[in-house]
Amino acid sequence: MSRRAVVIGAGLAGMLAAAALSTAVDEVVVLERDELPEGPEHRKGLPQGRHAHLLMAGGLAAMEDLVPGVSMRKHLLAAGAREISISSGMVALTPEGWFRRWRHEGPQMLTCSRALLDWAVRSALLDHTDVRIRKGQVTELLGGADRVTGVRVSSAEGEEELAAEFVVDASGRGSRVVNWLDSLGISGIREKTVDAGLVNATRVYRTPEGAGDFPLTIIQANPYQSRPGRSGMVLPIEGDRWMVSLAGTRGGGEPPSDPEGFLRYTLDLPDPIVGRLISGAEPLTDIHVSRSTSNHRRYLEKSRRWPERFVVLGDALATFNPAYGQGMSVAALGARVLSRELTRTSLTEPGLARRVQRGAAGSVNAAWTMAVSQDVWFPETQGGSPTVADRLLTRYSRRLIRTATGSYRAASAVWDVTSMTSGPERLLHPTTVLATLTGPPLPPSSSAPLTDQERETLRSLDRTTDEDDEVKTGG
Question: Which regions are flagged for Basic and acidic residues bias (predicted)?
């Protein structure tokens, strides 16, 4: 009798979980309720799919371990993704000032559209494993509180019960896992939502001639000014395009959806560099707006009881404010926990599912702390406010970031944690603490750290003017 695993959801988390399972069972069936595109195209089931995504170094390393016989880095680069050094290939204005760009190579990140990433992972997995995808919606878990034995599936052909040796829920933000567990007799799952009311607005532009090597550019939101946060990003993606994503929190920071307002918003950011860049670029799409941006966590790893052979990964476990770029990496790291456990023990080993669930919580904890410890400071955030611990953490982290604007040692610690190649404890390493207490050896930069050639590119693209009373560039 063949052994079957079922994965609920064919998004990034689901396909990576399927990759982890593919070497441990005879058959992996991925159940997906949406129609999946044949190429790198947007699909309805990804509310954030049209907005900026970063695949951090830690997440990419996890993906490299998962798909048998495929280097996902090479596969994504061949498909058109861009590889960018976080230390030298990015221009970033933080709440504490401009980060410097260093010649030393820091962690690499990949940038591309979410549609390309999902399609590339899905196609690599389908080409190199026996994983198959079926259309259908899971309505119920089968089994009991001690063990999950399969799922009930609803499809165009009707309902059926699909038996499985192992089940992974990777159905995303809208997962019904708490209800499913309750029906098995497992209740009392704690959940928490921290919602800054972030709104994303994104438009894609053709990369202007001569600007193909312009660095990734980010103006970060400042949560410490007792007013709504506002941010903007120019992200190089496949097809010689720029993805320009704006984000603002409730209470007046929300970006508009009309072209004139979109441009004005970029020019009104703490530095107008994003607006100056796109003022001379050709738009290729309309402006897409999304509001599914809250931090939401299900503390499944803390449940007193947990069924054997059932694991929850990806957004079904936790979602994060997308401004911090952690979600895809957390999904990949969770799938790697599953993969590594399966190399050490049998799929049917008692306690396996509990160990995987607790292991996956490790990367969730790090991303959650990073996102929530900043979001609680926005004035109209719902579901959380700064605690004593948040205030102490913020005092240290702000001093660390201020130091990192002029200290390579401090900056490298920030890069490692942001890239998820190290855990938060990296920020408390004695060398990092000493650097933070000493302060930056180099003075703060008064403007974006661009090369002479990049400044000339910016000037050539800038179509804003101080003569127009209605539009002020701010420099």
Answer: 452-464
Any domain includes 90: no
| pLDDT score, position 465 | 66
My answer on whether 261 and 410 are in the same domain is no
Assess whether 187 and 41 both reside in one domain.
yes
For residues 325 and 189, state if they share a domain: yes
Strand, helix or coil at 141? strand
Confidence of residue 472 (pLDDT cuts 50, 70, 90): very low
Query: Domain residues for 387?
Result: 373-438
What's this model's pTM, rounded to 2 decimal places? 0.93
The whole-number average pLDDT for the span 447-456 is 96
14-46 residue pLDDT tens: 999 999 999 999 999 999 999 999 889 988 777
Q: Look at residue 203 and tell me if it is in a domain.
A: yes
User: What's the rounded Cα separation, in Å, for the pair 337 and 65?
Assistant: 11
Do the beta carbons of residue 36 and residue 133 sit within 8 Å? yes
> Could you tell me if 373 and 393 are in contact, meaning their C-beta atoms sit under 8 angstroms apart?
yes
DSSP structure string for 174-185: T--HHHHHHHHT
- Report yes or no on 86 lying in a domain: no
In whole angstroms, what is the distance from residue 440 CA to residue 86 CA?
19
Q: Note the maximum CA span of the chain.
A: 77
Q: What tokens were used for 349?
A: 């080993």
DSSP-based three-state secondary structure for 155: strand
Q: Domain count for the chain, please give it.
A: 3
- The per-residue pLDDT for 474 is 35
